[in-house]
Amino acid sequence: MGTWGTAIKDNDTFADIYGEFFELYNEGESPQNISKKLLAENQELITESESGNDFWFALALAQWETKSLENNVFSTVEDIIVTGKDLQNWKELDADENDIKKRKVILEKFLEKLKTEKPKAKGRKRQKYIKPLYETGDCICFKLINGNYGGALVLSTNTDPKYGLNLIASTTMNQSSKPTIKDFENANVLICNFKNWNDQPKITWYFPPLPKNDHPSFELIGKTQIEIPYDSKEYSSKKYPFHPTFSGGWHLIIEAVNMQIEHEKNNSLPKNKLTIAQVAKKKKWWKIF
User: Fold this and answer.
1) Sequence-ordered list of residues with C-beta below 8 angstroms from that of 135, at least 6 positions apart, any chain
2) What pLDDT score does 240 carry?
3) Are 225 and 138 in contact (CB under 8 A)?
4) Cβ pair 68, 32 in contact under 8 A
């Protein structure tokens, strides 16, 4: 049941539905449209005896808080509580008798709350825009442990203002001179085979660092063109020749290069190869070779 307490909100189903309602509400959607969407997309959840009640409780509370409580939603919740359907679920799941008594009191108070009218609808929270650290196509370089220059390329910038992600490909660059834009365009993506990396490219979606000094010092060399659109919600290898990971550790952009260089001193080189051109330019190949 994913329940951690007797309160109305103390379960996974409630948290998911209530959270999604207000995520859409804060984005400007009307409570009516949100309710229709949640009802249409959660029919399977609604019909489950263990989660259906919590779905209705979440929807009812969200509607009540936005002064949009619908009669059918209230009637459904009232029936669940008055007939003891929710308490019966708890009994069938071998809940402690003391918890069942607490739950009964909480349900009755919840129903009384829904019968009252909220003076004012809950305000929409203004979405905070999180600016990505870099722009698509930015070429950044950094110093490696051996004193040489390494580099990474920003393949994409997430357009969702809630996340501010950058998709960054570390490269195999390991040179004494500072890299040029041409060096980036002719570079190979770093393929890792140290530790549990099984010839996988180091291409990662990075969240913006929280503290200002939480990321290494990078130098912006310039910008190159990225023709391929990348979406942080797309994980399918059928679309991309790699599986992007997610991270908040910007130091890993450099650390992976250092670790791979050290690994290759006494171990075999990666079997795969992936060029920057392959992940930046539109072509009909899409495979690591």
Assistant:
1) 154, 157, 223
2) 63
3) no
4) yes
Angle at 132 between CA 127 and CA 134, to 5 degrees: 165
Locus of tokens 């939603």:
73
Report the largest interatomic distance among the alpha carbons of the chain, rounded to a whole angstrom: 77
Q: What are phi and psi of 140, to 5 degrees?
A: -120, 140
What separation in angstroms does the CA of 203 have from each of 95, 190, 196, 234, 252? 47, 8, 16, 14, 11
What is the Cα–Cα distance from 234 to 228, expressed in whole angstroms?
13
User: Based on the number of CB atoms within 10 Å of its own CB, is 196 exposed (0-12), middle (13-18) or buried (19 or more)?
Assistant: exposed
Percent of the chain with pLDDT over 90: 64
Can you list the positions of beta strands (E) in 171-272? Answer: 191-192, 200-201, 203-206, 219-223, 245-247
Q: Are 89 and 49 in contact (CB under 8 A)?
A: yes
Mention every residue, 6+ apart, whose C-beta is less than 8 A from residue 165: 132, 156, 157, 158, 205, 206, 207, 208, 232, 246
Q: Is the pLDDT assigned to residue 260 strictly greater than 90? A: yes
Mean pLDDT of the chain: 88
79 vs 17: CA distance, rounded Å: 20
